[in-house]
Structure prediction request, 138 residues.
Amino acid sequence: MKNEKGMTLPEILIAVAILTIGLLAVVSMLSAGFTDVVVSGGQSKATSYARQKIEELKNRCYRTNGPICADSTFPASAGNDTPEAGITRSWAVTQVGATVCPNRLSRITVTVAWQTGAAPGQQVIVETMRAENRDSCI
Prediction:
């Protein structure tokens, strides 16, 4: 049986099936793309918060016996905060090795964790090293 344009019913059904499969593929790509954009946004924000804390910690002075350094906990320090709802940030500063002024070296590690929707928790870890400034030796 043919319609006005000369296509049979099986041809129409096959064409509809192919069109449906193509549309489903496009919809799944859009969904996956949206999820990737949301996750990437979270990673970008977390990296920014981590870099901000790294810079803050790198600019602290080393513990000295003189008036140069007001922070008596540095270089050994740790802490955490919540820069934004749903995002937690923790950090640790540890001295590397048993060296003395002016050769002290510290490892600074910042971890930012967040959760996006129903996805499992994610985290970004940024780590750097910091050398002591020779001027801080007294």
Notes: Residues 9-136 form one domain. The longest strand covers residues 87-96.
